[in-house]
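[Meeting: bench + compute handoff]

Bench side (C.D.) handed over the final construct sequence. Compute side (W.E.) agreed to return the predicted structure before the next meeting so the bench team could plan truncations. Sequence as handed over:
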Amino acid sequence: MTDLETTDRTTLKRLPQRAHFDRDTVNAIIDEAMVCHVGIVDEDGRPVVIPTFHGRDGDDLLIHGSAASRLLRTARNREVCITITLLDSLVLARTAFHHSANYRSVVIFGVPEQITDDDEADHALTVLVEALVPGRSAEVRANTRNEIRATAVLRLPITEASAKVRSGPPVDDEEDMDAPVWAGLIPVETRFGAPITADDMRMDLPPADSATNYRRPV
């Protein structure tokens, strides 16, 4: 597994020590996060940023939506910028100026292509389902051809990308260290509750294993 090459767009101009170009770091952030934001300039020359679910298939990022989706139609074969962020804690310093956050983020640039082969698209949809709910694909029926063709899947090679990570305590100026102000971290956690059975269930079934044992990659 090779590190990502730096480019003008992925080189951090501010706090470059927080940059990471190793695929292990980049992939771990992509896999743990549930939502990405896709930025693009639309057909009318206006910037648009759309949140959506994503998945990773090896060195490719996958996003999907309705075949009629404006975002998917616009994004294919056009430059995009995709951002992914995980917030780990709020960092409270002794002064407002030095307040910060501990986070992990990834920015990816490139030109996504639409997957047109039915079998490849079906595989990609399975990857997307598994990225969101691990184990779910084995619990549901297979996709039909009509369902596959009604869904557009875009594939973006993760070749021009970088991660940025901030961790650790607040950093205050020496002259403020004796100020009578509490400083520290407020951890941020995403928690998942117990499964809630749909009201229109026609069988008395217990919650699926994928729902009962739901976990995110960490």
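W.E. noted at the follow-up: The chain has one domain: 16-171+187-212. C.D. will use this when planning the next construct.
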